[in-house]
Amino acid sequence: MMRHHILPAIAAACLAVSTASAQVADLRSHTEFRVCADPAAVPMSSEDGKGFENKLAAFMGEKLGMPVTYTWFPQGSGFIRKTLRAGLCDIVMGYAQGDEMVLNTNHYYTSAYGIVTRKDSPLASVDTLEDPALKDQPIGVVAGTPPATNMARAGLAKNMKGWDLFVDRRVENPVGDMLAQVKSGELGAAVLWGPLAGPLVKQNPDLQFTPLLKETTGPKMFYRITMGVRLGEDAWKRELNSLIRRNQAEIDAILRDAGVPILDDYGKELKQ
C-alpha cells in the first residue's frame, strides 16, 4: 500500500519541478536587458552609471539591441533572492564562477586579490603575504575574504585591521576608507580584491596595486568572473556565452580602461 502513496507523490514532485522550470523560463524579458545591481558598489556599479559593470552592461545591451534597465538593491544577504530570483531582473554582472545561487555564464575575465601600498613605501616591492617586510605593519583587509586566512597563516593576524564584508555601500565605504589610510600612512598596506582596488588606485597617483600571484598556501587568490542568470535559464546562458566569446577583446578593453587587473585563465600572470 505504501508504494501506491509514494508514486503519486513522486509524479506530483516531478510535475512541480517541470512547472517551476517553465515559470523560470517565462521570467526573462526579451525587450530589455534587465540588470540586478548594487546602487553604490563603486567602482563596479553605481546608480549614476559610471561603474565599469554599468559600462559592460551598456555594451551587452547594445549588442543585443535592447535598452538597459536596472533593479537596484544593496549586495549582501537576500540580494539574489529579492532581485534575480524574484523575476525583477535577468542578469547579475560580475558574479564569481561556481556560486550555486545562480547559473554562471562562461567567465569573461579573471582577476585576483592584491596589495595596495604607497609607491614611495618600503613595502612597494612586496608581492607575497609571506614577505618578512609585512611583519609588524598595520594592514587593512576585509574580514571573511580569502586573503584574511592567508594573512593569519603568515603570522600577520595581530596587526590586521578588519572591515566588514557586507555593508550598505550607500552609507559605508570600507575600500575607500582603507585606501585613504594607506595614502595617509595610517596603514602600511591594504589587501583587496583587484576589481575593487584597481580602478580606485588608478585615480590616485600616490598608490599602487600588486596582484598576489605567488601565494602557495591557503585559499586561492584569483577568481574567474561570470555573469549570473537564473537557474534553469540555459538558453539565455548560451546566448550570453556566445556574446562574450564574440566580443572578448572589447570586454577586455572596457575592463583595462577602468583599471581592472586582468589575469590569464590560470591566475598566473597579467593577461597580455
TrEMBL record:
Keyword Signal among UniProt keywords:
yes
Q: Where is the signal peptide?
A: 1-22
What keywords appear on the UniProt entry?
Signal
Domain (Solute-binding protein family 3/N-terminal) ranges: 32-258
SUPFAM superfamilies in the record, alphabetically?
Periplasmic binding protein-like II
What this protein is called in its record is Quinoprotein dehydrogenase-associated putative ABC transporter substrate-binding protein
Organism of derivation:
Paracoccus aestuariivivens
